Amino acid sequence: MSRRMTVEDANVFMRQFKLLIAGFVALLVVPLIVYAFYLERRLETFEDSLRPSSPQELESDETVPGNRYPLVAHTVTGQVVYVPVYSHIYHGVGQPHLLTITLSVRNTSMEHEIVVRSMRYFDTKGREVKSYLDRPVRLPALGTTEVVVERDDASGGSGANFLVEWYARSPVTEPIIEAVMIDTSSRQGISFTGRGTVISEAASDSTEDAGSSGTPPTAE
Fold it and tell me: Are 166 and 133 in contact (CB under 8 A)?
């Protein structure tokens, strides 16, 4: 015949049960703490490896000789540049994702200005949507001008493009002409660039520059 559990027996059982639970928790939690510490150290090491590499870290005591025979960069006096842009792209099962477009024209010459003759916007079917210049504008040495196609303007479509025509009175290094597409309306932002491609070169025409409109304004 089994005997009844006394209060002391119950207390012993509860102590043993608590010790069992504590041992189980220790076996589960301690490895997790160790693993978390390990991951934190690994992350710190990884972040340290991504720190910027400053020029000072690469300083050398070697005397750098002067450039006695500098190479001449490719220079031109004018171009027509095709720049691919996207007023929207597609995602998922083909839903359009609208984008803001910034077209940037950067004069890379350190000495001479260039004249931007036209900045024309075309849609996917090749039809001109808008001309962003009423008359030519001067872009000073190392200067930049830009235009923005707003996010809600989907008139260009996914195959839109700009044609940018520029010229200079003296041979200059090629300007950098590119577009930046961006959208930050969703939880995860998206941005990418498109670089212009030269489709023809154009000679400087001072008589057309003068014209009836006078001296081209300076781009701001």
Answer: no
Q: How confident is the model at residue 216 (pLDDT cuts 50, 70, 90)?
A: low
- What pLDDT was estimated at residue 204? 47
Paired tokens of 68? 């006695």
Q: What is the number of structural domains in the chain?
A: 2
Give the whole-angstrom CA distance, residue 25 versus residue 160.
62
* CB within 8 Å of 152: residues ≥ 6 apart: 98
Q: What are phi and psi of 6, to 5 degrees?
A: -85, 170
Which residue is it, tokens 């639970």? 21
Same domain, 123 and 37: no
Please check whether residue 59 lies inside any domain of the structure. no
Among 2-6, 7-11, 215-219, top mean pLDDT goes to 7-11
Which residues form the domain of 4? 1-47
Is the domain of 112 the same as that of 173?
yes
Torsion 78-82-88-91 (CA) sign: negative
Residues 124 and 84: beta-carbon distance below 8 Å: no
Instruction: Return the higher-pLDDT residue of 205 and 185.
Output: 185
Under DSSP, is residue 44 helix (H, G, I), strand (E, B) or coil? helix
63: pLDDT strictly greater than 90: no
pLDDT at position 113 is 97
The answer to whether position 209 is within a domain reads no
